[in-house]
Write a structure and sequence with these properties.
Chain lengths: 395, 287, 337
């Protein structure tokens, strides 16, 4: 039996195909009538987030605070009369599932623009969104590739790891004095540039890098790392890995009495509650200095509006970042006016976005590399929770 | 530094050995390799956590309740996986793969969103110093527990009537049944015991690391490796193998400073170990 | 049974089963499904189906290993990764065209499997299973690290370029057609391999290794060959997954994928040619098409695997008129009650 015989035996298949074809012809948009994902009353945004999996702690709050920010804006009438509809799909922190989700969001849900949370997630969809010319707005990710090379459709809000660690290391060295450092990093290449940047900053700030210790994600034991730390006796430990690995590192350091002389400096996961949850005990004051890209610390007075989005829960760093991304998205859409298209949005963000600020972020403005906030804040631990180490943003 | 490295490796190795024991306990008695053993331990740790933090039960009560729960879970698993339709050990082991996915998913659904959690300190806090390396009381407890379980398994299987029954059933079920051994009761007891031990391992690991659905991930593979090096039979060899793997991991981390190399080395050691073990076994069997 | 040296004169015991049952029917059904899919499915669903078809090639390898000698091929994700990156390297760095790069990947997978096959001869099932887990974890970790970042993109992975034919890039339906042809060829070759003399040897080896040796079957050689073939399927699958999904990242090809592949093979039915396709459809494609949340997808795999192994141990395709297949009588050590 040939394929045609099979189809002839099933006339409903032919009918379905005909209906599909005619339906496509009818719904094919007339030129320049309306943008994908934009109607008279709504703008559809899509998000792929690692809500389960290794970065659940980050994704859950980033996505939920962004959603709540949009809900608040919608309740007040939306943006120029349009409500923002955010569709969030879990990708387990996996790049290939994120890509599947992006395909679903673009082809099935037909969203106007996308955002994401997670380094692997973002890496999975960068090329695809660029090819499809769909805006990727302020993802909760610190990939270097987000801004280098600059892509026409991609806009970032949060300094990548190498910028974060350079800024906070410079500040700590200036404030607490120069000294020797040991870099502790997970081996995946996401941290290659950050490790180099940290070492360069240490040198430039009058210090000396004693060694770089390599770990893996879910490092089975931290004793072997801490044994070496005890031998090396650095003033500073500069750490870049996941929040839970950093927590277990601290636990072992505390048990072995190997705390560094002056402090532990780290990338933004160090500023998240997940670090404290896995640290296994109290973390001393004036020991931890973590980069907080673009925003104030979650406990700061200025972040009250964001905290009030979800009064019943403790807002972590990534929740605040979610609110920050949402705030900038809302402002950008508002400035577009009634005629919302992808091309206009990317043109606006590229070089026409005049400086803008909400209480809990630093100033947002257009930048040639599409990184719209260049500075970071510094968080430290006091009395068991994170507070701002300084009132200013550092670069 | 070398002695400290050894101390660290030994402490980790006993943890691997403990995971191996939870597997060996069941294989030795029923022939089934329970891939889900560690996940069951993780689930029990979450039950204890919920009892402590949501219901504010005293530590001892929470742990006892969880132990009872784990025994019941073992019985339920036995009925749902084995008794429902008996099969050869390989098929039963493959069924436990399904169980692994189910337990993991259920844990993610219930507790995944807010993980990781800090497990409340219900065990003694503090450490002793060995060769300049501080070994926590919980780590000592792991070592003590591993040795205790290993001894208990040996005494149980070699020195008691129950152990004799267990060995009879595992070597020839039909003959044992024909001779009036209550095969089902014996199996049930083995499963309950195995899950109870897994429960204790879960609580210990939650103390050592943190509490999350994927908390067993760093130690699972090495635990399996140690068990297999003991040919899924010998608790003593599994413990020794676990300690050896722990020392290799610790030493290669300190001296190579490249996790990938450590992993390659562990893999080579495992491969050679398994091949040598297989050859030794053949030699023993054929003489 | 005459004790001759020529095994093809062996009359097969009546209870022995040929592997890859009903291959012709299976191949026809597969061809039909592959052909009508683009007409019935929307773009996104077609991508899912194509990705599923690519995975099913790896599952086919696992199923063949299990059905013949009971091998638990938990090394398959590692082979998939190796295949995908060998192909990517050949295309990007060596300037190969897609199809030759796929061939190179298949050969690489088979060659790398040879030492593994040698090891299989010396270990029992569970030992090899544990080793398989360790190998998969090792390869995934190595490829995620900065050691091989130029080729693999590290833990973040790399985009996979579209296929090309005679210098022309294939997109859309043309790309799908290329993938469909590759998948069909993989399925077409399977019965040929496993119904050959080698296939029969493998079945005898499963029944009784010592007996096979005693009549002159080189069991070690056949085990090694089998491992190479299973891995070649894995490597080919890796290339096709890269093509279908446009992206390859090492962390995905980990121990949990080992378990999923085995589950798909068992659920579909390792004795049936389309068992792999059925298992992949039920456990991978349908949950994705139904937009099930990730956690529920894992739960589905676990539940379906457990239920199948209890009530339909021969797999889903054994349902209905196939359910009365006579089994080779298990030896007394295997039965538990």
């Amino acid at each position: 039996m040939t394929v045609m015989d099979h189809i002839k035996k099933r006339p409903h298949v032919l009918a379905a195909a005909a209906m599909l074809a005619s339906g496509l012809m009818v719904t094919a948009p007339a030129k320049a009538q309306s943008e994908t994902g934009v109607t008279a009353t709504s703008i559809k945004l899509g998000m792929s987030a690692g809500i389960t999996g290794p970065i659940a702690f980050a994704s859950r709050q980033f996505s939920s605070y962004m959603q709540k920010y949009f809900d608040k804006v919608n309740a007040a009438g939306g943006v120029n009369g349009r409500k923002i509809e955010l569709t969030i799909i879990d990708d387990g922190g996996k790049g290939d599932v994120a890509l599947q989700n992006a395909q679903r969001l673009l082809q099935q849900e037909r969203v106007f623009a996308m955002t994401t949370i997670g380094t692997a997630t973002t890496a999975g969809i960068l090329d695809y969104l660029t090819r499809q010319k769909v805006p990727l707005l302020f993802p909760g990710a610190y990939n270097t590739e987000l801004v280098t090379p600059t892509r026409a459709n991609t806009f970032a809000l949060f300094q990548p790891y190498e910028g974060q660690i350079a800024a906070v290391t410079r500040w700590v060295y200036k404030t607490k004095g120069a000294g020797s450092a040991v870099i502790v990093r997970a081996t995946p290449p996401s941290f290659d540039l950050a490790a180099k940047s940290a070492a360069a900053t240490v040198e430039a700030s009058g210090g000396k890098t004693l060694a770089t210790l390599n770990t893996s994600y879910n490092q089975p034991e931290w004793a072997s790392i801490v044994i070496r730390l005890k031998e090396l006796k650095p003033d500073y430990i500069i750490v870049m890995t996941t929040a839970s690995d950093m927590g277990r590192m601290w636990k072992e350091i505390a048990q072995q009495g190997a705390a560094p002389g002056k402090g532990i400096i780290g990338i933004s996961p160090l500023a998240d509650q997940a670090f404290l949850d896995t640290a296994g005990g109290p973390v001393p004051d004036n020991m931890i200095y973590a980069a907080v890209p673009a925003t104030v610390v979650p406990t700061a007075k200025e972040a009250e509006d964001a905290r009030n989005l979800s009064p019943g829960e403790t807002m972590g760093l990534f929740g605040l970042e979610g609110a920050a991304s949402a705030a900038v998205i809302v402002e950008a859409l508002r400035r577009l006016g009634p005629d919302v298209t992808r091309a206009k949005l990317t043109a606006l963000l590229h070089d026409k976005f005049e400086p803008f600020k909400v209480p809990f972020t630093d100033t947002v403005k257009s930048s040639p590399d599409h990184l719209m906030i260049q500075s970071v804040g510094v968080a430290t631990v006091k009395n068991g929770s994170f507070v701002a180490a300084t009132g200013e943003f550092v670069k | 530094m070398l002695l400290a490295t050894l101390a660290g490796g030994i402490s980790l190795g006993f943890l691997y050995g403990l995971v191996a024991l939870t597997l060996i306990l069941l294989v030795r008695t029923t022939g089934v390799l329970n891939f889900a053993a560690a996940e069951v331990g993780m689930l029990c740790a979450f039950i204890t956590f919920t009892a402590l933090t949501q219901f504010h039960l005293p530590a001892l009560v929470a742990v006892l309740l969880t132990l009872v729960f784990s025994a019941l879970l073992g019985a339920a698993v036995y009925c749902g996986i084995v008794l429902i339709r008996p099969a050869d050990p390989l098929t039963l082991s493959l069924r436990t793969l399904g169980l692994l996915l189910i337990v993991n998913s259920v844990a993610y659904k219930i507790w995944g969103a807010n993980s990781p959690y800090t497990f409340p300190n219900i065990l003694p806090h503090g450490f002793v110093t060995l060769f300049g390396f501080n070994v926590g009381y919980v780590q000592l407890l792991v070592i003590a527990f591993a040795i205790l379980i290993s001894l208990a398994v040996w005494v149980l299987t070699e020195r008691t009537k129950l152990g004799l029954l267990l060995r009879a059933v595992s070597s020839d079920r039909e003959a044992a049944a024909d001779l009036g051994v209550p095969v089902i009761s014996v199996d049930l007891m083995a499963w309950c015991l195995a899950t109870t031990v897994a429960c204790c391992v879960g609580i210990l690991v939650a103390h050592l690391f943190f509490l999350a659905p994927d908390m067993m991930a760093p130690i699972l593979l090495a635990g399996f490796a140690a068990a297999q090096l003991g040919e899924m039979k010998s608790a003593r060899i599994a413990l020794v193998a676990g300690v050896a793997l722990g020392i290799i991991q610790s030493a290669s981390s300190v001296y190579f400073n490249q996790p990938e190399l450590s992993q390659i080395l562990s893999f080579l050691v495992l491969t050679v170990g398994l091949i040598v073990r297989g050859k030794l076994h053949d030699r023993v069997v054929s003489t | 049974m005459k004790a001759t040296g020529n095994i093809s004169r062996f009359s097969r015991p009546a209870t022995a089963l040929p592997v890859m049952m009903h291959p012709v029917t299976g191949l026809i059904i597969l061809a039909l499904l592959l052909c009508i899919a683009p007409f019935l499915l929307a773009d996104y669903q077609l991508t899912l189906a194509a990705t599923g078809a690519a995975y099913s090639v790896a599952v086919l390898g696992v199923a063949a290993g299990f059905a013949t000698v009971g091998m638990l091929a938990l090394t398959q994700p590692a082979m998939m990764l190796i295949g995908a990156y060998v192909s990517l390297y050949a295309v990007e760095t060596l300037g190969f065209s897609f199809f030759p790069s796929a061939l190179l990947a298949i050969v690489a997978g088979a060659l790398i499997a040879l030492p593994l096959g040698w090891i299989t001869c010396r270990l029992d099932k569970f030992s090899f299973a544990v080793l398989g887990f360790a190998f998969t974890y090792l390869v995934s970790m190595l490829m995620s690290s900065n050691l091989l970042v130029g080729i693999t993109g590290g833990e973040l992975g790399k985009p996979f370029p579209p296929a090309d034919l005679f210098g022309i890039e294939l997109h859309g339906n043309a790309s799908y057609a290329a993938l469909a042809v590759c998948v069909f060829i993989a399925y077409l070759l399977a019965p040929t391999i496993f119904r050959s003399t080698m296939g029969r040897f493998l079945i005898v080896m499963r029944q009784d290794d010592v007996l096979a040796k005693s009549v002159g079957v080189d069991t070690n050689l056949h085990r090694i060959l089998l491992t190479a073939i299973v891995s070649a399927y894995g490597a080919f699958s890796g290339v096709l997954i890269g093509l279908a999904s446009g992206f390859v990242a090492p962390p995905h090809f980990d121990v949990s994928l080992s378990i999923s592949l085995l589950a798909m093979a068992l659920v579909g039915g390792t004795r049936y040619l389309l068992g792999s396709a059925a298992g992949t459809l039920v456990l991978l494609v349908f949950p994705a098409m139904l937009n099930l949340p990730l956690v529920d997808r894992n739960l589905t795999v676990g539940v379906v695997l457990l239920v199948c192994l209890i009530f339909m141990p021969e797999g889903l395709l054994s349902f209905g008129k196939f359910v009365r297949i006579p089994r080779a009588t298990p030896s007394s050590e295997e039965r538990t009650t």
